[in-house]
Specification:
Blueprint (H helix, E strand, L loop, with lengths): L5 H14 L7 H8 L3 H13 L3 E3 L6 E3 L8 H7 L20 H25 L4 H6 L4
Antiparallel strand pairs: 1-2
C-alpha cells in the first residue's frame, strides 16, 4: 500500500499558507497551485482543521495556519490526513499457502520488521517541520 497522496497535497497546502500569507487562500486558489479540484482541497483542509493545523471559518473565504510553521511537523500532517493506518504502511499478501512452511510463517517473520520500519519513518517525519520544508521552496 502506498502512502496516500493526501499527505503530499496537505504539505503543499500548508506550505502555500505559510509562504503566501497575504493571499485569500481560498480552496479554488489553492487548487490552482496544487493542480486538483477545489473539492479535494476542501476535503483535505477539513482534515487539517480537525487536527488543529489550520483555521477555516465557514462562510469566510480563506484559511491560515493555526500555529507557527516551526511547531507543525510532517508527522502532524501525516497523522492529520490519515495517510496510512498504524502498522499498515507495508502490506503482506493475503493468501499464502498454509500447507507451505514459508507461506504459513512469512507474515509472522516480516510484520515485526515492517512495523519497525514504519516507526522509523514516522520518527523522521516528527523531526522535520513545515518551516523547514517551506524554507526549501524558492519564491
Amino acid at each position: 500500500m502506498n502512502i496516500s497522496t493526501r499527505f503530499a497535497v496537505a504539505i503543499h497546502i500548508l506550505a502555500l499558507l505559510e509562504i503566501d500569507k497575504e493571499s485569500k487562500n481560498t480552496s479554488e486558489w489553492i487548487a490552482g497551485s496544487v493542480g486538483t479540484n477545489p473539492v479535494v482541497i476542501r476535503r483535505i483542509t477539513s482534515m487539517l482543521g480537525k487536527a488543529g493545523l489550520i483555521e477555516v471559518r465557514p462562510g469566510v473565504a480563506g484559511a491560515k495556519l493555526a500555529r507557527a510553521a516551526e511547531e507543525i511537523t510532517l508527522l502532524d500532517i501525516y497523522l492529520a490526513v490519515d495517510a496510512v493506518g498504524q502498522d499498515s504502511l507495508f502490506a503482506v499478501h493475503d493468501h499464502p499457502n498454509p500447507a507451505c512452511p514459508v507461506g504459513r510463517n512469512i507474515a509472522g517473520a516480516i510484520i515485526p520488521v515492517f512495523s519497525l520500519a514504519q516507526l522509523a519513518m514516522e520518527d523522521v517525519l516528527g523531526k522535520v517541520t513545515l518551516a523547514q520544508i517551506a524554507s526549501q521552496i524558492p519564491v
